[in-house]
Amino acid sequence: xxxxxxxxxxxxxxxxSLLQPEIWVCCPQCQQLAKITQQTEQNQQHIQEYFSVxxxxxxxxxxxxxxxxxxxxxxxYYSHTEQNLEHWRGECEINLRQKCLKCQKGKFxxxxxxxxxxxxxxxxxxxxxxxxxxxxxxxxxxxxKKLISNPTGIDPIFHYELFLSVAVAQGQICVYNPQHLxxxxxxxxxxxxxxxxxxxxxxxxSRLPAWIKSARHRKDILKALxxxxxxxxxxxxxHYSTPYYSEKRS
Length: 250
What we know:
Blueprint: E1 4-10, E2 23-26, E3 33-42, E4 46-55, E5 61-69, E6 92-99, E7 107-114, E8 123-127, E9 134-138, E10 143-146, E11 164-168, E12 171-175, H1 178-189, E13 192-195, H2 210-213, H3 218-233, E14 245-249
Parallel strand pairs: 1-13
Antiparallel strand pairs: 1-14, 2-3, 3-4, 4-5, 6-7, 6-10, 8-9, 11-12
Helix pairs in contact: 1-3
């Protein structure tokens, strides 16, 4: 009896490539579907990225611009934590690093954590590490950033909750958009997975948790992915245009 083998071809998909064409998130105001989109402009030296999020239910909107050098190959989107603090209710960290103008030799260096954004005082005091003078600084002089202990289920741009997220016994499965869902489903369904890329451990699939890759949990994971597909189908039809796996009989 012939047995059908589903073969998945990993062509070098990266986590950053899955952010396109949009990221589905929960609107911070109404908790309905909101979408994050990106536009890029490039000149000879820099790349300007424009990120925006829009909710079509309550019309919540937010955007910001980020500029990076052409030679910077990997963008750590988690560096944009200060862009969306007004809706953040988790732990924060302040960082101060200022040169002492009195002695011209020391610096004011301070790093401190707070349980929430509202706990951070408008003014803080720090001591010069050389002349020991104490100076006061306001929030415009030190950096405030979010601390995300578990980034699973959080978008890497604005740090909103991902809309397409489902819990299983082994953990949490999250995807950025329907295209990401399509690729992950094809990967899980395949019983023969092959790699045609040379980026090794930098690829998306190589960094997946072991429990997601395991054939032991394939049935449970496919059920969870089906629930996400049903969520998507109520909002827009799924279009499978790219064959991520091929069929083969043995």
